[in-house]
Amino acid sequence: MTTFLLIVHGLLAVALLGAVTHQAIGVLVPGRKTADSFVGRMRAVSAPSYVSAIIFLYAATAILGGIIYGEYRIGVRVVLEQLELWKANGAFELKEHFVALGLGMLPAYWYFWRRPVDEGDTRARAVITATFAFIVWWSFLVGHILNNIRGFGS
Amino acid sequence: MIASRSFHSFVVVFPVVYSVTYLIAVQNNYALFTYHPALEEFGPLVQPPRDGPAMYWYGWIATAALVAFVAAVLTRFMPERLAQRLWSGWSWAVPIASMLVFSYMLSGYFTR
After folding, report:
1. Distance of alpha carbon A103 from alpha carbon B69, whole angstroms
2. A147 falls in which pLDDT band (50, 70, 90)?
3. Is residue A75 very low, low, confident or very high in pLDDT (cuts 50, 70, 90)?
4. Which tens digit of pLDDT belongs to each residue from A16-36?
5. Mean pLDDT, chain A, whole residue set
6. Are the C-beta atoms of B101 and B19 separated by less than 8 Å?
7. B43 at A interface, C-beta within 8 A
């Protein structure tokens, strides 16, 4: 069951990674709507259209991660400590705190994307979205590396 | 308009108080509840490990969310003049500062 949940957690994380990366690029380096290159089209996405999906995916991925975290604490972290893999352990510790802090930013993220923009809101949108992109990338890479070190069921 | 301004205060104050409370909760282990993964049991407040490790992460999040929600609701009673001057940037500056503090606190993992 944990392996199944881990796979679903990973799939949701992939979707979240794609959505938040598109939105972050769209808001930080917006491009022309008529761009014809791959990168140009990525910069020209409609960033606001990702908000609901990102909120749902972030919450769902965090909740699923929370459900399988107990298994990680017993079956993986202990082994990392025994093998003295301190960097991997520390990277995961950072991941858990970054994700928790991201949960606290979700209401502000939703609010600044839904209301009409003024100058302060534009900056808040951009910085909060970039912060989410960082948290999601960090969490994805750390989760992936740890799973490679010692995946569930190994 | 007043409701909108009140909600603006709510969404600015919530992440600020949440981030600071989470940091304090982790530092001092103020968990609202404890999870014992080996037993698959929850217990109220901070409990010592039983038959395996004890997990406080969920409890820290609950503590931070509860305190932040109460604080954000109380902004409804904030003087109008103060609410108008509340900088929206606090909603991201304080969480980012908290992330940097955590990075510093956990830097020992990367230097040993």
Report:
1. 13
2. confident
3. confident
4. 999 999 999 999 988 776 767
5. 90
6. no
7. no
Is A15's pLDDT higher than 90? yes
Interface test with B, best of A84, A95, A111 (most B CBs within 10 A): A111
Supply the pLDDT for residue B16. 98
Which residue of chain B has the CA closest to A104?
A: B15
Give A154's contacts (C-beta < 8 A, 6+ positions apart).
Answer: none
User: Closest partner residue to B110 among A87, A123, A127, by Cβ?
Assistant: A87
Which chain A residues are within 8 Å of B109, Cβ to Cβ? 86-87, 89-91, 93
Structure tokens at A76: 């993986």
A120 contacts in B (CB within 8 Å)? 87-89
For B33, the 3-state DSSP assignment is strand
Q: Inter-chain contact B8–A111, Cβ cutoff 8 Å?
A: yes
Question: Which H or E run includes A22?
Answer: helix A2-28
Q: Report residues of chain B scoring pLDDT below 70.
A: 1-4
Give backbone dihedrals phi and psi of A50, rounded to 5 degrees, phi first.
Answer: -90, -10
Structure tokens at A27: 């808001």
Q: Is B53 on the interface with A (CB under 8 A)?
A: yes
